[in-house]
Amino acid sequence: MSRAQFDLVMCLKQPGTTIGKVCERCDGRCPGCDSLVNSKKMARICDDCSFGNFADRCIICGGKGFTEAYYCSECVRTEKDRDGCPKVTSLGSSRVDMFYEKKKKGQ
Predict the structure, then answer these.
(1) Could you tell me the CA-to-CA distances from 26 to 23, 43, 106 in Å, in that order?
(2) Whether the model pTM is above 0.85
(3) Is the pLDDT assigned to residue 5 strictly greater than 50?
(4) Spatial CA neighbour of 7 closest among 80, 99, 90
(5) If we measure between CA atoms, which residue out of 70, 2, 58, 12 comes closest to residue 33?
């Protein structure tokens, strides 16, 4: 999802020691290329993304995270795991639109 949608902005700061989380929907996905195969190396997020309200959120879609995020073997081989923090900082226009639709319906 992070590579396919162009309106999403990734953090890309220097990663810290905290391991990123993914939700049920994004479980098994690589945060670098969105492939679903060959999980190899844990994805670490920066110190700024690991504190506050969004600390335990999914690094790909922003949902409630419960499982550790892993890079695939292809991203490790091409060193995409060293680009920086993989957490998506902007929710994108689709998430914002969904928020306002729920607010309009009164949910």
Answers:
(1) 5, 14, 28
(2) no
(3) yes
(4) 90
(5) 2
